[in-house]
Task: structure prediction
Amino acid sequence: MNIENKFKPMSLGEVLDYTFNIYRKNFLKLIVVFGLLSFPLDIISSIIDNSSSLVNKIMKIMENNFNNPKAAMEAFNKLMSANEAASVNPWVNIISVLSIIALIIYLPALYKMVSEAFKGNSITVEDSYKYSFKRFFSYVGALMLFVLITFFVTVVVTIALVIAFAILYLISNLVGPLRVVIIIISMIALIFITIMFSFYLYATFSFMTVSLVAEEKSPMEAIKRGFSLAQFKLFRFTGVTILMSLIIGIPSLIIQQIGLAISRATGIDMIQHIIFAGTGVVLNPIMFVLVIVLYYDYKIRREGIDIEQAYSELQ
Result:
């Protein structure tokens, strides 16, 4: 992967090639940056969810009383009468808050490391976290602004969709025989719009974070850059993201099923939790590397950055 080739518009194959090359060359540092905070929290969260889940409790009752339906029914009635199904484990909320704080810390650190790797530079795990703490309050401010703007945009889009479908419903009542066809088309359109809008917000959030971290933009400038780049070739972003999700999702699912089988065979639940969390730590950084590659690809396409400008930025 030559640096001369990175600062020009990339094909789909080049995007995937750069993504996996950066991931491979920085593998250990990426999983340390990502897993240092997320791995222990994922394990704790998995244990708590598993212990407090109503489904798991019912499955446990069935396993322990497989040959005794009467005892199983008594245990089930006791479970429901105790209202354990509605009880909320306070640790769930605590871990959720800690996970959000951890995300705000390790995400900028991860994007900083990948951004420097894309430019051909090297940065240590320690330095990436130092930079993340340095930009902590800027990132929190950007997130708060993003949430407010997203809420407003979502409300506007929802109102527009309600009005549009109300009009289509009135039209369907007038056309008679075509009513079913119009309803089906409307449902397909609703699903499509919902999916694309979700990817639009995901792209905006991702590009906003990269802009804030890699280019040290202010929160408002980062949000503007995020929305600007997210609108550019959204279908391409959606397609590449789905493709990469399948590429890493299929082996992840296989590994997790193997972990689940081992856990059930040995009766040790911790094996399942460790494998589930470990799989995420190893494979999830690929998606963040992909975001960085797409960010610079779109920045080049949208803003016309050439090799000379890129070299001057590196200097």
